[in-house]
Amino acid sequence: MMFNKPDMNRIKTVGPDRACAEWVLRNGGKVTWADGKKLADYNLLPPEELKSLKLLEIDGSDSSISHYGFSHLDGCTMLKKIVLHNNKYIDDRAIKGLEYGKDVLSHVQVSKCINVTDPGLKEMIVLKNLTTLILFDLPSVQNLAECKQYLGSGLPKCEIKGEVESVKV
């Protein structure tokens, strides 16, 4: 969990986007910068002096990012997409942590995360800029259809997709 906790001094020194990228990469995730460059290796981060780099996407698939680090999203002004797939550390607290990106996130995927439950999914109702939400293979969710309906009614601009069907409310 050590690599998940935000270091406010580090964020102040390198900026929110770089600090967020460091969090994701240290925990086995991948990032895409606004210029389209993808990065999966922490050791290949650009020099710290390049504070102009902005995060566009986070792929937390098969990583160890957890709820402790989601406050890293705060201040990432160009972050549009987060994929949380096959991550045993993602739970309801992490889903609630997505609210740190509520002003910028437009695409979120939560799938094959065994510790996410119905109340956790419903926390995404605050992500008012979502246009795409992908939810599937969530074994601890008791009523996915009801969660999708709840989110769809609160997020009218969002297309909610699953494995098979797509719901536009």
UniProtKB/TrEMBL annotation:
Gene3D superfamilies: Ribonuclease Inhibitor (3.80.10.10). It comes from the Eukaryota. This is ATP synthase subunit s, mitochondrial. It comes from Papilio xuthus (Asian swallowtail butterfly). The lineage of its organism: Eukaryota, Metazoa, Ecdysozoa, Arthropoda, Hexapoda.
